[in-house]
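User: structure tokens for this one?
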Amino acid sequence: MPDQTESDMRYLDRDKLNSIDAGIFQTQEPFPFTNPQGCLTDEAFATLAATLPDVSQFQPFFGKQRKHGQASHDRYVLEYVDGLDLPAPWQEFVNELKSDIYRDFIRRLLGRGNFRFRFHWHYTPDGCVVSPHCDSSGKIGSQIFYMNTHEDWDPAWGGETVILDDHGRFEAESNPDFEDFDTAVPAETMDNRSLIFGRKNNSWHGVRPITCPADKLRKVFIVVFEDVNPRKMLWKRARRLLRGKPMITEKERAMY
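Assistant:
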């Protein structure tokens, strides 16, 4: 594939983004989600899949105790910050995600503003699981880009994010198993798929145990939509001031 530059390659397929119906998304059950194919152009997906950051740059995240007794979400994690040593296509893609084009798309889809983005990569090895959970209240949604291809991943190994419906039976601060839910809808993950969802108190999701060879990794890139409502941020910083804590957290420094 010829070398591309930021000026002559678009990563997001703008026609695809524009075709996603915000009304259908917002009224989806059990919570807002959509699993589109082709949010990236075919060329962009191929380029990004071929130039993913090496796992040697990642931090291991294994055996970490989660709230509410939920099992650890084991994986390797790379958080994006300005100045991170990235392959050029990935830096160009992140720059495009920071643009008004993508921000306006998410604003239209969610039907709200007052958010910022965080970006990170998760690589997950054999045997690991993302136990059923609802994201923290500071998140208002995410887009998960599934970056494996048929050359490096067999769908039979798993790795699908599963949308779970409890019909309102469980508190977000609880620890149900996959089998406790009434309905489980696995996302499609291959061939340039992504999953976009908006957080609600019942936005249960997870990833069942992965069963892949030892030399393989489930690879995703995630854009997190963080709530930055001015009133909430002011209240948070006032509490930090009273407690003698830093006014801006490391997570907030990584928001764009």
